[in-house]
Amino acid sequence: MANTExxxxxxxxxxxxxxxxxxxERAAAYVHKSLSEFVLGQALHAADEVIQKxxxxxLTQADWDVFLDALETPPKPSAKLKRAFAEHKKRxxx
Length: 94
Known about the structure:
Blueprint: H1 18-30, H2 35-55, H3 61-72, H4 79-91
């Protein structure tokens, strides 16, 4: 049977005052987790929330309709956009 447990090879060191550590240990005890498990779980949860907030775009129905319309019937490129593409092509090697 294959071992599906992830090998933890990275460390994160933090410094904190005694009261903060006691509070974290108390909270970890309430949920029957080690201090490391508790802190890592809470940090990952907070990280997920921050990432979602910054990487998710929520549109109103009106904005969604405008966006979808632009995808389905894109406007013709303007002269300014054509110049920008030409400049990009000169500067960036493909």
